[in-house]
Structure formats: C-alpha cells, structure tokens
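Backbone-to-sequence.
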C-alpha cells in the first residue's frame, strides 16, 4: 500500500503543524495547479495561506499536485499501524484513526486477503482434509 506522499511529510516538518492540518482538511482529495509565484487569488493561496503556498511553489512550480484526503491518510495510517502491531485492540485503533471498529475489522480482513487470497485459503483447507 502506498504511504503518504513524501512532500506532505516534508511540509509537516517545515511548517506549523496546525496550518498544515488545516490545509490538508481544506484541500484533501484535490488536484491543485502550483503556480510559479503564488498570487492572492490562486486556489493554492486561498487553501493553504501565504507560507504554505510559497513552500509548495518553491518545490513544485508548474506542476499539478494531488493533495491526499484525510480519509486516505487515515486509511493508510490504519494499514500501517495494523502491519506494525496487528494485535492492538480494535477500539483503540478506531479511536486513534477516527473510524469505526467495523472499519478496522474490514481493513484487517482486506489485509489478510492480500496476504493469502480467499481461493488459496479454501484450497489449503481442502487439501488438509
């Protein structure tokens, strides 16, 4: 599974975390054009503010940037947490990532299916009988 884009990690390290979170909440899921010099009316400036717009423009001017959504970040974070510590309580993970306990169980099942597809599991059971 893909991790959070490295530019988001760099942005978090370079800028005020609260400002970065506000930007990700506002722009999450969008594809934004990054101007060479951010202007006051540009979507990037409106969503991120002057400092974030300057930081992004200095690195990605002239490109389109896909901003990860909060939902994707939670999903990827949940998958990473489950792969690192699969025995953590479901309710703890649900609270940590802002999802339901049912969703945590669904992600666990999806990850198990990725490791061993359902057909392979059926074949293994049939051959062991």
């Amino acid at each position: 599974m893909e991790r959070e884009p490295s530019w988001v990690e760099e942005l978090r390290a370079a800028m005020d975390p609260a400002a970065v979170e506000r930007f990700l909440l506002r722009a999450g899921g969008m594809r934004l054009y990054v101007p060479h010099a951010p202007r006051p009316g540009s979507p990037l400036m409106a969503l991120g503010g002057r400092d974030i717009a300057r930081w992004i423009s200095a690195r990605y001017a002239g490109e389109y940037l896909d901003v990860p959504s909060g939902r994707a970040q939670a999903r990827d974070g949940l998958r990473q947490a489950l792969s690192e510590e699969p025995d953590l309580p479901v309710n703890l993970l649900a609270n940590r990532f802002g999802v339901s306990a049912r969703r945590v169980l669904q992600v666990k099942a999806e990850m198990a299916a990725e490791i061993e597809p359902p057909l392979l599991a059926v074949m293994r059971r049939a051959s062991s009988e």
